[in-house]
Design goal:
Largest sheet: 7 strands, mixed
Distance between the termini: 37 Å
Structural class: alpha/beta
Oligomer: single chain
Amino acid sequence: MNTGSAQERLLSEQRAYYNALAPDYLDQLLDLPGGPEPAAALDAFRPAGSVLELACGPGTWTPQLLRHASDVTAVDASPEMLAIAASRISDSAQVKFVEADLFSWEPDRRYDVVFMGYWLSHVPARRFESFWSLVTTALAPQGRVFFVDDHYRTPEELVEGPASSTIQRRIPDGTAYRIVKVPYKPAELERQLRQLGWDITVTPTAGPFFWGAGNRTLES
């Protein structure tokens, strides 16, 4: 089997899942221990200046970013998600919405902060390094990164077993889709990032959530 083609089909199905889930996405948020902690950490981080928000979804985090940022560029592959995000933002807000596949998109400028909310775990492991190359390209000198994610997967989702990062999720009407969900352990994720030249501290919460904050190492 052509693994490249298989992964493209999986990523296509993942995009279809989020398109279909868009109207109900905000009703699917996990109510689990530690959930409020990342938002408090983001405020403490203070994402000031020009911010790039990768995989913005329906604008869950965009208003919070705007409390600190001078402007936000919010990128997502789903037009349905972007439409919802735009409807939740004031017309006067300094936000530019961009519809693009993050596995092929290239930024046309650099940003003070790159932010990701619940996206990194949906990046296939074999694309981890190239994805972080994109983040490097997008960051201004001395730029900073902040991400929020979780390692939550239910037993019913593990259709290929717990060792696989391919899971199955259903939208409210019962339609099933395969998506990527890498169950990162914070310490291991921090180690992987250091190997790529990032000085990012990954902090676990009381539940399945975690956040990462930092920048490129000085020698990178």
